[in-house]
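Q: I'm teaching a short session on how sequence maps to structure, and I want students to see two examples side by side rather than one. Could you give me a first protein with its sequence written out and its structure tokens following it? Keep the formatting plain so it prints cleanly on a handout.
A: Of course. Example one:
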Amino acid sequence: MEKLTKTSVHRYEDLAVTVTTAPHNYGELYKMALRINKKRAFLFVSTVLGKHLPLRPQLPLIASALLAVTYYEQTTGKQVAERAVLAQALQTKDEAAIMRAYEVAQQLTLNVGDALVIGFAETATALGHGVYDCLANTHYIHSTREVVDQPVTLYFEEEHSHATDQRCYADEALFMRGDTIILVDDEITTGKTAMNIIASLQERFAHKKYVVLSLLDWRTAEHEARTKDFAKQLGIELQFYSLVRGTVTTSGAIALQEQPSLTGEAAQFTRITVPKAPKYQGYLRDTGRFGTNASLAAYCQQVAQALVPLRTGRTAVIGTGEFMYVPMKVASYMGEDVWYHATTRSPIYVYDAPQYPITARYQFQAPEEAAITHYIYNVAQYDEVMIILERDATDEQIAELVRPFHASTIYVVTM
């Protein structure tokens, strides 16, 4: 393990969370927040992922590029000169630095050999897709919590998550390509989720090498030893790489009471028609849910060109649930003062404390998953909000979704 030198303590009443990390030059990658969860009462809210906090849409794609560069450098022993430009964007979050870094990220074609990239739902679907974009000769799959009318190719559990069941529907042939599987998640806590999916994969597909890429890695020495023993038992090579390496310890506790969510009062929306892309089972075919080796960049540029004329000022582009990458990529082509974040199944606690990241929580029934409660956080004031949906929804379903947003105009875009 790298030498850990920076320690910070986050206190919430009697709960103290101590985080110690190794040196890095990526700036602030997360903020601490609370949740009602028996296993862990806190969580790391990413400042570069594009899930819970509004941010410039290029930032998550730059973070993905840095993960791809990290893996490439560790695998080949070669240095990527553009790493410094990518790191500076995460560190400063300066507009000019972000745009320079995004140009670099879009040009990366790192050759790591024939490999399959798998992103974890729901938070890392876009993160994994961004890694895949930067690696030549790879295919991409993301797991899903949604139930699709198709045989499940792979099933595993993400035990610490709010929703634990994970499935893959991609064709079996994709899982048999090459010897290397690259798993991408936003955070590694113990390594158990990675081991769960690897165990499921090894039951059906024999691979020699597994790589786990994450923004944050909090495994202890004990956890590291456990993953090494696991790899030895299966006869595989297993490596973990992350942007930030550290440990987390807690003392005390906090009693969090159930709290109501806001619902919002917005009611008016306008449907927008954009260029269509191939679909399968009602979903976009090439996002990774069913496996892909296609690029969606040209399609996302087309959609952006259709939406830009509707802009009048400060714009928010909203993804929904697992459908993060396409709205994020579309937003990245839409110019200045465009912000992105997404709805989520994960309930985060609103807590009154200085520097606490979650200031407002809105709740609604997701139009694409009618039985599932979704949330969105820290909704700001915008001139226009553009909610991008993967599947069609009724006016009644959309009326539920638009309520949280504060904007002169709310557009609903169905792919």
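Q: Perfect. Now a second example for contrast.
A: Example two:
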Amino acid sequence: MNRGLLLPSWTLWALGAGFVLFVALCVLAVRKNHGMKRSFFASPYTVWMVVFTLIPCVLIGYYALTDAQGAFTLDNFANFWDSNHTVNRMYKDMGPEMSVLIQRGTVNIDILIYSTWMALLCTVICLFMGYPAAYFMTDRQMKQGSTIVVLFIIPMWMNFLLRTVAWMTLLEDQGLINQILRALGFSGAHLMYNNGAVLLGMVYNFLPFMVFPIYTSLNKMDRKLLEAAQDLGANPVRTFSRVTFPLSLPGVISGITMVFMPSVTTFFIPRILGGGNTMMFGDLIENKFLTENNWGVGSALSLVMMVLILLSLSVLRKADPEGEGGGLV
């Protein structure tokens, strides 16, 4: 299915109708309120979200549910479940004697499972590393807390791609780490082009997205609650488990969300640090769109990933639906 960048004809009509509707609503709102309310100034953001978020999602759904001729089909999702679906259908059409060659391909499912597992590992590692860092950064007795905040921010000033490429100079066979190991009398280690290198790159790039939400949540916490717990006889461990951690839960959930979503869809990190030996779901989607030019299957894969992310977000929100902490007490 080769579609290129051709958009369905109704797209331009939808954009035009949406623009006209938006202008009409703005005029009605101004006349009804006898002027512009403060909420009116959120309109540019609304237009931005509609044009660059809602409409692309609609187009992805359109391509996922249609074939090259624009007819409704579910073959794109069948190709997700069975990566050999197109070939198997050809064998089936050739007759019963070719049915022995029919075999379900599990490449797409395997890559999805691998991507989810790597994203979960990255999220757990970031949580176990990020929470103590955020906790000590908010400790008022620790005078270097603000300095640590700056140290977390500085790497984010550098381009994401450059930060990832920089790890190659450290991990490659002739890199700095192996040179130090050889200078100390050890044999060199193969640190590049494996799952460990990919996971390291993911943790390094996404760790600040775990630290800062937790830091913000802990920093806004009322310290009088900790003093009240201590006055009631709670030791430091019980104070943390019953007061500090539950109140920081909104930051934890935000951090998990901000780390898991980009981790499960990343494609540049495994390409650079994995050297093509590892493929994640983001790489698979990019390959369908840009290499195979198969917009139907690529869109179907994108929708599957979108549904999984929405499900994971709904599960996370169950722990703290109001965003006020205390959901695990």
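Q: What should students look for in example two?
A: Point them to this: Residues 71-105 form one domain. Also worth mentioning: Residues 107-137 form the longest helix (31 residues).
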